[in-house]
């Protein structure tokens, strides 16, 4: 799998199209194909133990048990795994993932789930409570994100509206499908394109892949924010939407949404602010006096947004809000069927039946936290993030990428940052590996605001850097895997490897 370094460097100067043609030919050579398959299998076999830790420890059920298991046994089996898994996130060792995590909050959400576990908003007549919760979550989120100002003096159909989806990815998929259908219907565009900074979440790429949209990824500037001039040049008459993040997942920086959304508005096209990560943080950060540029519906060019209730909205996993400026735009998201023998059918999002209990939990999280709760949580998160940024910057070998608020990406000078990440892993920390450039990040959540967590992180990070400096040739197990994607120019190879990895994950 490893390419000689010289070869890798040389290949970086070859146009990507040539490389992919070369790759296709090389993969047809039987000896090479077999060698590759063998190397991939060996690499994946090395990961299997870590991915399947319960084999041999709790019973495996690949077939239905002949007789149903006693409920106590089922709960016991689950309890073993839950106990093992909750410690890391509970103690604040994990980047992002669990955004609140206090026991009382979780117990409350679980009670809400139990009350609503049978509810399904597909049957609005049976569970009007679910549609009430959904409409109110959307309205509360919209108002938090500038809808009151945007709606003032405008007719109801021009007001900000939206839907609840299953997560950030679905919100983004829905918005992109909406723009595709709008552009086809209203402007006759049959070869749609979206223009996004390179840092935009892969959910946009997924949307492009699913919906036949060409995604133009534009390199970001030296501050890791979208480069407005380069984005302007990438827009053409097939562009249906321009994208910006507030903030971006990799480096946690906020794109220049005002300038980007104006580019779109001047050309009469849509602009989507991806606030999946920041939607429930930035409004409060701004109230607390942190430097937060405009990013929401207060900007006239912003026509849609995504904001995740299941991240910093502190809801249970499985909900996000997608918002649109006006119901005419949202109507392109909807699906209706009038000819089916099962009767007339309609559904606003991708799923048919939807978990009313998760919608109820999102509603309960929002109303029980309230403005004061979000403000206080954001204060704690940003203060902790400030401590962490200062501490990371004080380690001479490390540097923070850009000017982030609460997602802190850092790289290393003169040592391998992935090895630092690996050493941190050995101490229990679960950080996100980034590439292009090589870096890691920590998304600060309420878990990190517990006493002592930030100090422990910085202490361990110093130790990890010292270790890697003293042992530069230690390869570790995961560090080469992270380095691989950035150095292997054959994207198809990396993609094949990831598909095999997913096969492995889905094995019993
Ligand atoms: C900026 C941004 N957009 C979109 C997403 C996708 O969200 P989800 O994982 O809920 O689908 C994420 C996830 O971290 C994100 O950070």
TrEMBL record:
Pathway per the UniProt entry: Lipid metabolism; sphingolipid metabolism; Sphingolipid metabolism
Keywords linked to the UniProt accession: Endoplasmic reticulum, Lipid metabolism, Lyase, Membrane, Pyridoxal phosphate, Sphingolipid metabolism, Transmembrane, Transmembrane helix
GO MF: pyridoxal phosphate binding; sphinganine-1-phosphate aldolase activity
InterPro entries listed in its UniProt record: GrpII_AminoAcid_Decarb, PyrdxlP-dep_de-COase, PyrdxlP-dep_Trfase, PyrdxlP-dep_Trfase_major, PyrdxlP-dep_Trfase_small
Subcellular location: Endoplasmic reticulum membrane
Family: Belongs to the group II decarboxylase family. Sphingosine-1-phosphate lyase subfamily.
UniProt name for this protein: Sphingosine-1-phosphate lyase (SP-lyase)
Organism: Melittangium boletus DSM 14713
């Amino acid at each position: 799998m490893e390419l000689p370094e010289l070869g890798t460097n040389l290949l970086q100067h070859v146009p990507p199209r040539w490389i992919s043609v070369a790759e296709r030919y090389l993969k047809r050579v039987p000896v090479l194909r077999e060698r590759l398959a063998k190397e991939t299998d060996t690499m994946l076999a090395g990961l299997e133990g870590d991915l399947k830790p319960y084999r041999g420890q709790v019973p495996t059920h690949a077939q239905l048990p002949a007789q149903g298991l006693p409920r106590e046994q089922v709960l016991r089996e689950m309890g073993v795994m839950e106990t093992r898994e909750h410690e890391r996130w509970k103690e604040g060792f994990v980047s992002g993932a669990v955004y609140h995590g206090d026991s009382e909050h979780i117990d409350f959400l679980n009670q809400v789930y139990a009350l609503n576990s049978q509810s399904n908003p597909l049957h609005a007549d049976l569970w009007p409570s679910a549609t009430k919760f959904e409409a109110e979550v959307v309205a509360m989120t919209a108002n938090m994100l500038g809808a009151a100002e945007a709606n003032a003096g405008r007719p109801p159909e021009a007001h900000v509206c939206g839907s609840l989806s299953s997560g950030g990815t679905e919100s983004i998929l829905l918005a992109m499908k909406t723009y595709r259908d709008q552009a086809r219907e209203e402007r006759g565009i049959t070869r749609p394109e979206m223009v996004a900074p390179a840092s935009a979440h892969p959910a946009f790429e997924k949307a492009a892949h699913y919906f036949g949209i060409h995604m133009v990824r534009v390199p970001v500037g030296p501050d890791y924010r979208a480069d407005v001039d380069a984005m302007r040049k990438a827009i053409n008459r097939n562009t249906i939407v321009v994208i910006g993040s507030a903030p971006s997942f990799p480096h946690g920086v906020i794109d220049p949404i005002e300038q980007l959304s104006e580019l779109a508005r001047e050309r009469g096209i849509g602009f989507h602010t991806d606030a999946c990560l920041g939607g429930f943080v930035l409004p409060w950060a701004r109230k607390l006096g942190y430097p937060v540029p405009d990013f929401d519906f207060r900007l006239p060019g912003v026509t849609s947004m995504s904001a995740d209730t299941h991240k910093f909205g502190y809801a249970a996993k499985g909900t996000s809000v997608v918002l649109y400026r006006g119901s005419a735009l949202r109507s392109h998201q909807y699906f209706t069927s009038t000819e089916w023998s099962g009767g007339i059918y309609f559904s606003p999002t991708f799923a048919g039946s939807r978990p009313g209990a998760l919608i109820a939990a999102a509603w309960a999280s929002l109303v029980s936290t309230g403005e004061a709760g979000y403000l206080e949580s954001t204060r704690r998160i940003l203060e902790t993030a400030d401590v962490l940024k200062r501490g990371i910057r004080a380690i001479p070998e490390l540097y923070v990428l850009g000017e982030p608020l609460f997602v802190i990406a850092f790289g290393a000078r003169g040592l391998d940052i992935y090895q630092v990440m690996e050493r941190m892993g050995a101490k229990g920390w679960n950080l996100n590996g980034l590439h292009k450039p090589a870096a890691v990040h920590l998304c600060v959540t309420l878990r990190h605001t517990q006493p002592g967590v930030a100090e422990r992180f910085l202490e361990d990070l110093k130790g990890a850097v010292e270790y890697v400096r003293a042992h530069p040739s230690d390869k570790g197990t995961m560090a080469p895997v992270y380095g691989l994607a950035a150095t292997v120019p054959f994207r198809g190879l990396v993609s094949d490897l990831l598909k095999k990895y997913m096969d492995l994950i889905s094995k019993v």
